[in-house]
Amino acid sequence: MAKKPSHVEQSAQNAGDQVIEEHRRIKQSLDLLDKTTDLRTMVPLLQELRISLDEHFAQEEAPDGFPAMIAEPAPHHARVLDELFNEHKIILSTLDGVIANALFCLNGPLATIRREVTTICGQLRAHETRETELLTDTIYTDLGTGD
Ligand SMILES: [Fe+2]
Known about the structure:
Layout: H1 7-35, H2 39-61, H3 66-71, H4 78-107, H5 109-145
Helix pairs in contact: 1-2, 2-4, 4-5
Residues 23, 56, 60 line the site of fe (ii) ion (FE2).
């Protein structure tokens, strides 16, 4: 018969389960981001990810997080844990750069192109309307009334 886990073991397992559940949610966010090509959809997804990672990494790094769950019971993993914690900083910084680039494109070049598209659409509508009016006027009015 399996030994009943102690209170400490049980709480470590609950905390571990919670982290694994968060990893599952983060993976879903990443899968969605990977499929997203529209920058206007992508930016809020990146910003949401940034907020959730901030909290997630902080929980993992907290004394009752990975240090208690991994480094204390398995000190031979301490070096890997240090590497992973360093990656947290790099990932957040990289993500900040990606968000800044995306916002720059969205508010700069993309906004300019958007305005240009709106302008050319308006010009083309007006142009086609004038041609239609001219055609209608000629065919149905000028030619239609001639004897
Ligand atoms: Fe994590």
